Structure formats: structure tokens, C-alpha cells
Amino acid sequence: MAKLRPALPAEADALTVLVMRSKAHWGYDAEFLAACAPELRIGAGDEVRRRIVVAEGGADDGCGGRGAPVLGLASLDGEPPLGRLGLLFVEPAAIGRGVGRLLYRDVLRRAAGLGFRRLVIDSDPHAAGFYRALGAAYRGGPGAPGELVRFEVAPSPLAAWARAWTGGVAAVHVGNVAEYNAQFADASLDREQRAAHHYACLAAFYSPRPAALVLPRTVPAGWIGLVGRQLGWPAGVEVYDGLAERGPGLSDSVRARPALTARLTGAADGAVAAGCEGAAAPLVPWGLTAPFARLSGRPWRPGELRYESKSAAHELFGRILAEGGHPAITLPAQWRADTRRAAVRLLAARARAGESTVLKSEHGVGGSGTTVVTPERVRAAGGARAVLRALPRGPLLVEEYVAGPADAEEPRDLTYDGFVDARGRVHEVGGAVMDVADGGYRGATVGPGVVPGWAEKPLLAFGEAVGRELSAAGYRGWFDVDFVADGAGRLAPTETNLRLTGPSVAFMVAARLDELRGAGHLVRIADRVELGARLPEAAFDELCEDLARRCAAIGSVFVPAIPTGAFEPAPWMGALVAATDKEALDAAERLVRAGALSVGAMFEQAGDDRA
């Protein structure tokens, strides 16, 4: 594993030789190399003036020499706010082994810390694909043989909210999705919580940089390696999986293993117990539960979660709006039907009036327990009673349906994400646009310019107001507020979620990619990407590696988010794609969906070949 250090004054000549050897790797003739030599020479004092860092490896790196050979170098030239990545060269024998990526990310990290806002990169044409794959924006060239290709990148520190989320240290991520759902006895979820165990894989993204993952189901061996490479995780992220293959009891399963409990909670020495600044690694769950409180030593205050209830959230929204100050927010009417007879009467009356209705369970995740019912649907079913007969038992909320924008290109479903820290301070994370069909969540997109300009200010202001109320009620943790755009320039809040969500995961990945690759990433999480065939584990790993390479070739990023669904009878996976412009983001999603479906054709072709 290569390590970085500052270049030494005595190394100038040797580093110049490495630079020229690396340049010659691309097949240039002696005359061309001689012409390049003055510009590429490293002179006395350049190691400080140009902020040169070298990557060195162990004796077994296969690059010749003894001790710790130098595998590459990079320079950060100029003064803030505009600088230049002047040199980035890798020993030919080490090309393709991650050394260049390590050096590039280090330059961006140092540049962000020094206040650089833009770096120019004049790349050898042979290295253009490398910079494009790492997120640099193409700016021109080559127009003639030997001309350099220009790229730019905007160095960015980790977002302030992301640093505050875990206190600046790596965290232990506990995938207790099923455990969280189970405490609400949601009738719309299956008792085995199979889907929740799949979504627990999102624990890989509960913060920008984990120390350890704690997962109920066993995950594919190659998955964490790929995710770690895509998100620049340092070596040593520990994975504890297969701890609760059935049932919701992940936290209790950890507590049944005293040695593991001690390691994860910081009561034992080791990498997990220590954060990046020497502090104990915090435990971050999907959501708060009594078993997690026992595991983490956190006080359990069940009243904190009362606004997870959709009717309680509706009442909260009403109180905030009654105080004034949010003219662009409108609240849909809502009625509680304690019996099915009452629900039938309400639904039938609204259908007769030509009104569409949203039926909701008191609790529900990802749209479970939420159904949009039009008057046409009531008539087609033979009446309101027939519609309700197909829904889960239990009390229902009957809510006014908010018609969306007339323009199908305008987003209808939006969300605000934020969190309340241990001191009760509200941190704004941002707004996102969700992909929702018939009340069911299918994914979300986050990033600059995603939320339309007319909606951004009222969304952020109302989300912050909700956060202040949650803080006053004693809640500490992540939350979101979901909205529907009404087509008249207003937003209607529909629920709060007092836990992590798919959009929150996208925000975490965006923050990490901005830090690694430069500012401005759009990130989309796709809840379910259909696979064309049920794959063996090794074949699934190979598919994901291929999709990552193909996305990198167009300057985007693919991260498999939920791998375990690939082994279901109807196979699927969750996916994250990222890019710095919408066209590239859409292209990456199309590439991933088409590639995932194509594996079925691949297996059919293999069968034909055997025949």
C-alpha cells in the first residue's frame, strides 16, 4: 500500500528522472522528450515552492530497488484561489495500481485546506481518461498532436454539516432498519422484514466515512471493496455481517456477543474504537430504538419519535403555519378514521365530490401504507368499501390529494433533510427531489440546482422550522420533511421521518465525492434496478466492477448501494450514480439500468453457446 510524504530536497534529480521515465511510457520519441525536459525538470527548492508530495511503497511493490521505492509524485502549484496541478507522474511499473488516484485526491485535499477554489490541469492526452474518470471537467484540446488537454476541478472540503454529523470522526454504522420499523407495528410491512434487511445495506453510507459496518444479512465479499474504492475509504473498514438473518433484533444480536459489543462501543482497544482524531467512534443507527439505546448507552426517550406518526406530524405542521411566516407552504386537510366504516364514509363522500384522496397508515416507510385513490378507482372497484378491503388493517388517515404541477418536467415530490445534534442545534443538509409513483418512493436526486429556484427558499425555511420544533421536543438525530408541490408555486408538507432515508444516503455520498473529486456533484439513488438474471455472487461482483468502469469512462460514478437483492428470485439491486451535470447523471443511470438488465441476455447467450 503506497504512502504519501513530502518530497525531500535531495530527491530533485531522482524525481526528474522518474517524471521523464513516466512521460516516455506513452511512446514519445527522444526529440519530443528532450523538448519537454526543461518544463518537467524539478529544480532546487521546488519540493517546497511547488508543494511536491511523493508516493512510496514497500519493498514488495514490484517496482525495483530496495526499501521504500518512490512510486509517483504530484505538485500543487500557485497561490489561492487559483492553482495548478503542475505534475502528476507515476512510475510505469505502478501505473494502474491506484497510485495516481491516491496522489490526485491528496492534491485536492491539500488544495481545499489551503483555500484554492479552482485548479487547472494540463494533461497529457494519454492521461485524459484518468482525469475524466476522477471527475475533472474538460475545458478543451487537444487540437493538434502533442497538445495538452485542459481540465479544471474545484477543490472542496468536507461539508460543514457532514463534519458536524459525527463530530469529525469515523463512525460505526448499525443497519437496524428492521428493528426501527418493528417498534411501530406497521401492518403494511411483512413480518419477516425481508425488505428492511436488504435496505440495511445502506449502512455503508450512514456517514461519509465509516470505521465499521454492522449488518443483519451477509453481504457479497467484493461489495465493500468496490464501495470503498469508489468513496476513497481508508484501509481497515471492518464489516460485521450476518448477525440477524431473520427477525428485527440486530442491536440485541450484537449485545449477545460481548467481545463485539466492547469493540464497537469503544470499551476495547482497536481501530474501530478510535476515530480519526483520537475520539471514540460514535455509533450511528438507521433510527433510534430501545435495543440500540441499550447497545450504545444512549438514554432511551421513546417520546422523541412521536412525530414519526403522520397525524402528529400533520398537527406539528399546522402549529408552525398558524404562527405565520411561511406563505408558500400550504397544508392539505387530514382526517383520522379510527374504524373502517368511518374511512369508507369519508372516501365515498370525497369520491362523489370528484376529489382524489390519499389513504395513509399512521406509520409506514418508503410509501408503504400510502395509497392514492381517484374517483375513477373507487367506481372501478365497485365502491369505497371494496377499495379499503384490499388495504392493511388498522386505523387510516384520510388526506386531501394535492394535484401537482401541470408541467410533467417540474418536480412534484421534494424533501428537506437536516439533523439535530446532541446540543439541540439544527443543521441544514439540503433539499432533494424524490421519484415517487402512486405514493411509493423509488429514489431521489440531490445536488446543486436540483430543487427549483421557486421552491428552495420556502422548503429550507419550513424544514428548519420543523427542526427547531423537533429539537424543543427532545429529538436528537437525522430527520426529513417530505413535500408535494401543488402546481401553484406552493409546497404541501406531508410527513416527517425521524431516521435516515434514501435521500440522506445520497447527501452523504455527495459530500464525500465533493471532497474526493471536487465540488458540484449530483447524486441519484435508485431504489430498485432490475437485474436480467439471478447471478452467482462472483458474477454480481464482476457486473458491478464493469458498471463502475463504464461509468468512469463517461466521467460519472457508480456505487452499488444494495447488493443483497440480487439473490432474490426476482433479482434487483439498489444503485447510486453521480456526475457533475444532469446529462451525465441521466446517462449514467441509463447505462446502469441497461447493463443490469443485459445480464439476462448474457446468460441466454452462454446457454446457446453450450448448446
Characteristics:
611 residues, alpha+beta, Aminopeptidase, D-amino Acid Aminotransferase, Chain A, domain 1, 8-stranded antiparallel β-sheet, disordered C terminus
Offer a concise description of the structure.
By secondary structure, the chain is α+β, with helices and mostly antiparallel strands. It has 20 helices and 25 strands. Helix 9 (about 220-230) runs parallel beside helix 19 and helix 14 (about 340-350) crosses helix 15 (about 375-380).
List the helices and strands and how they pair.
Elements: E1 3-6, H1 12-24, H2 30-40, H3 46-49, E2 53-56, E3 70-74, E4 77-79, E5 82-84, E6 88-90, H4 99-114, E7 118-123, H5 128-133, E8 137-140, E9 149-153, H6 160-165, E10 171-174, H7 177-182, H8 194-199, E11 210-214, H9 221-230, E12 238-240, H10 250-255, H11 258-264, E13 283-285, H12 290-296, H13 310-322, E14 334-337, H14 340-352, E15 357-361, E16 370-373, H15 375-381, H16 384-389, E17 396-400, E18 413-420, E19 426-437, E20 440-446, H17 453-472, E21 477-485, E22 491-497, H18 502-517, E23 522-530, H19 537-553, E24 557-562, E25 572-579, H20 582-610
Parallel strand pairs: 5-7, 10-11, 10-13, 11-12
Antiparallel strand pairs: 1-2, 2-3, 3-6, 4-5, 7-9, 8-9, 14-17, 15-16, 15-17, 18-19, 18-21, 19-20, 20-23, 21-22, 23-25, 24-25
Helix pairs in contact: 9-19, 14-15, 19-20
